[in-house]
Amino acid sequence: MRLVLRLLTFEAFRALVRNKARSLLAVLSIMIGVTTVITVVAIGHAGTAQALSALDALGENLVWIEAGSRNAGGVRTGSHGMETLVEGDAEAIRNDVPSIARTSENIDGRVQVIADGANWLTQFRGISPDYFRVRRWELARGELLNEDDVTHAATKLVIGETVSQHLFAGDPIGQRIRIGTSQYIVVGVLEPKGQSVTGQDQDDTVMMPWTTARARVVGKYQTWLDDIVCSAADPDQVKAAAEQVAALLRERHHIAPGAEDDFNIRHPEDLAKARIKSAETLERLLLVIALLAVMVGGIGIMNVMLASVAQRTSEIGIRVAVGARPGAIRIQFLAEAVMLTAIGGGLGVALGSIATPQIADRLGWQVQMSPETSLFAFSAAVVIGVFFGFYPAMRASQLDPIEALRTEK
């Protein structure tokens, strides 16, 4: 047992030190491969996590109905000015579609908001209280809108973090904002959401009761809605719920069979899911490329070990001649290969842990280092070292001692 430990440690290390240049190159190749694995896996995870976050931010089992139909090319310029969705449609969905759990009227557009001498052009949304649950908006401070605010068309606002930062130096709760000729009071600030799937700043928004938006922002003569935003009761029934909503609206709008809808049900989650799938595919591709880098390092290990066997032929012959068994020779050379990969793998883990956050920070990505990834990369390096070191070790153990002793050093 002591002999085996000596072969695995001291003898292996001494043999590697004899050939510093070759050993260093082999260690560097493994180190670069392991660093690459750690970096690309972390970046791949970050991309997938970002896509999943975007999907989560879209909403709770989202069913999004827009006024107006798609044109022949499948492209719409927007729902503004389309008079095909009304308050009664939203009420009908609430009452007659059991697969829909929550429904919110929606009127939106761009407005100039003014407060404390500052002004900002932002997105306004006139909504019902269910909107916050449907779109998964969390409250940072203050309070959300309620049904009483909708009933009485209250002049209250819940604002996004971007608007808060541009208009107020301190806490905006209780502060006043002017939109047009009307004064509003800020009752809540939303938790930041960041960018949407399409790259828009979701925090650049103010939200008010939809009745207030209709009466004070877009004009009291507007009787239609821009959108109706709903959430299905079951995540597995989103498409079925959308079909039920479509059937109800076609009936309410007296659309003949085969005629085009005068509304459009969007599926933004399909875009997010496609992005997630692309991110996962890219993550796997990057991992394969990184593992190939480790494989190249393994080939370097094999070349170093084959050169070592050729250089130490006489030494091997003497050891076999004095009684060393082929298994001991094999263990010694295999230990040298494993030691090279272990040293390179350890250095690669250290370098990857340092370099990956730096790279991510420069690129503006959020990455989280995973101990499992580091362990996987290190283990993969050791396994590859064993794999590529096995052939040189077998070749060394099978040398004929007589022929080996005849070879000049």
Tell me about this structure.
This protein has about 400 residues and is of the alpha+beta class. It contains 13 helices and 10 strands. It has helices at about 1-20, 20-60, 85-95, 130-135, 145-150, 160-165, 210-215, 240-250, 270-310, 315-320, 325-365, 370-395, 400-405, and strands spanning about 60-65, 100-115, 120-125, 140, 155-160, 175-180, 180-190, 205-210, 225-230, 265. A 6-stranded mixed beta barrel has the order 2-3-8-5-7-6. The radius of gyration is 33 Å and the shape is elongated. The model is unreliable at about 70-80 (pLDDT under 50).
Secondary structure: elements and pairs:
Layout: H1 2-18, H2 20-58, E1 62-67, H3 87-96, E2 100-115, E3 118-127, H4 130-134, E4 139-142, H5 147-151, E5 156-159, H6 161-167, E6 176-179, E7 182-190, E8 205-209, H7 210-217, E9 227-232, H8 238-252, E10 263-266, H9 268-311, H10 313-321, H11 326-363, H12 371-397, H13 401-406
Parallel strand pairs: 3-8, 5-7
Antiparallel strand pairs: 1-9, 1-10, 2-3, 2-6, 2-9, 4-7, 5-8, 6-7
Poorly predicted runs of 5 or more residues? 71-79
The SSE order reads HHEHEEHEHEHEEEHEHEHHHHH
- By secondary-structure content and strand pairing, the structural class works out as alpha+beta
Number of strands: 10
- Which strand order do you get reading across the main beta sheet? 2-3-8-5-7-6
Largest sheet: 6 strands, mixed, barrel
Number of domains: 2
Rounded Rg: 33 Å
Described by the principal axes of the CA atoms, the overall outline is elongated
Count of discrete alpha- or pi-helical segments spanning 4 or more residues: 13
Helix content: 55-70%
Q: How much of the polypeptide forms β-strand, as a percent range? A: 15-25%
- Between the first and last Cα atoms, what is the distance in angstroms? 31 Å
